[in-house]
Amino acid sequence: MAEATPRVSLKGIAKSYGETIALAETNLEIAAGEYVVLLGPSGSGKTTLLSILGGFVEPSGGRVWIDGSDVTDLPPARRPTATVFQDYALFPHMSVSANVAFGLAMRRLARAQRLRKAEEMLALVGLKGFGERGVHQLSGGQRQRVALARAIAVDPAVLLLDEPLGALDLGLRRQMQEELVRLQRQLNATFVHVTHDQEEAMSIADRVVVMKDGRIEDMGSPSRVYLKPASLFTARFMGENNLIEGQVIGSVNGQAAVDTVLGRLLVDQPAAAGEKVHLALRPEQLRFSAELGAQALGDAEIIEFSFQGTHFRVHCRLAGRELMARVPAEGPPMAGEMLPLYARAGDLVLLRQ
Question: Is 108 part of any domain?
């Protein structure tokens, strides 16, 4: 059985501005119906990659394919894409309905059809009955929904979202994350979303693409990228992590023994003897009891802690190293208290330097 053609195929895409490399040679395929998030700090190349996909930036090298057609030389208006920008880019002199129907007007759709489609799209994003209002009468969240409605009205093969939630407050941002996922599933659409917010990426993506210095550093499901990062950068960037330096002593049956300041630790990954490595362990993976298969790290001294609602975030010191742990909310810690720590071999991630 032949493999399905990717919805998006970026082949050897690169972008330079003089001597500055904004995007190194990059290859990426995105399946139809997939929600992909490009994640990284400022200057990582994620927005450049999205802009090249949308036709707003011309690549220095490589080709852009959508549904098997080379669209590299097509302007944005002729590509089967639509973009939602962070500032929404709505027309203040137009009604909500006219804003949503704008792309349809550019495609010369009859007025009655445009208005009917605009009403359908507004209902889809939860703004039924808002068509006659002015943009100035809307809240930030409502404006974002109008921008979404306008983008999906033209039935794009790929919807591009350039930090669309960045201007919203925390509560509304979380609500809109859920709305975006609902909308993407309902339409069975392909979304490519840029953000620097790790929590946002993990809550909405089918696949996270982590970028650094114009290159793809890591990519995979949110749970894999978070729990089993493929690089030191990903381990550091994707939330809090305890990174412990060590040297591999040997490897037996796919399990490495690593000497560290916390003692000799077993890791469920093979490695060559003599390798210098880091072991990554998330704060929530530190254990406080001798569970089956857990390795004793020793008794750690609590330095400081803060209440986080569902848990206490705890700074502790063990063998001269500071570690971050999470203690259940029902068991408040005390500064100076000694806390036994354990780690399972399957939770530790071995990362090469």
Answer: yes
